[in-house]
Design brief:
Blueprint: H1 2-5, E1 14-19, H2 24-35, E2 40-44, H3 51-58
Parallel strand pairs: 1-2
């Protein structure tokens, strides 16, 4: 398998579940991933999210799609638009 993948690009993205605030560990991880250009998907619980996190993530410098042009099938097996 290593021989097959040897010359192919490798991709990494992270998912951080239950983000609700701009705590120091979150900010450190966010900045590290941003510096290394590692996309991260942040999942939030709407009832717990703090306004400062919304403001932080909505900043144009921080907001960018991690998986552009991702497509998934709908219930009928057809294709939906980009997610």
């Amino acid at each position: 398998m290593d021989e097959i993948l040897k010359d192919r690009p490798r991709y990494l993205f992270l998912r951080d579940d239950d983000v609700s605030d701009t705590r120091p560990r979150f900010l450190a991880a966010f900045e590290l991933c941003a510096q290394k250009d590692i996309p991260v998907v942040y999942a939030v619980i709407p009832q717990r999210i703090k306004k400062r996190l919304v403001t932080f993530l909505r900043s144009p410098a921080r907001l960018r799609p991690a998986l552009p042009r991702l497509r998934r099938p709908d219930a009928s097996g057809g294709r939906r638009g980009a997610v």
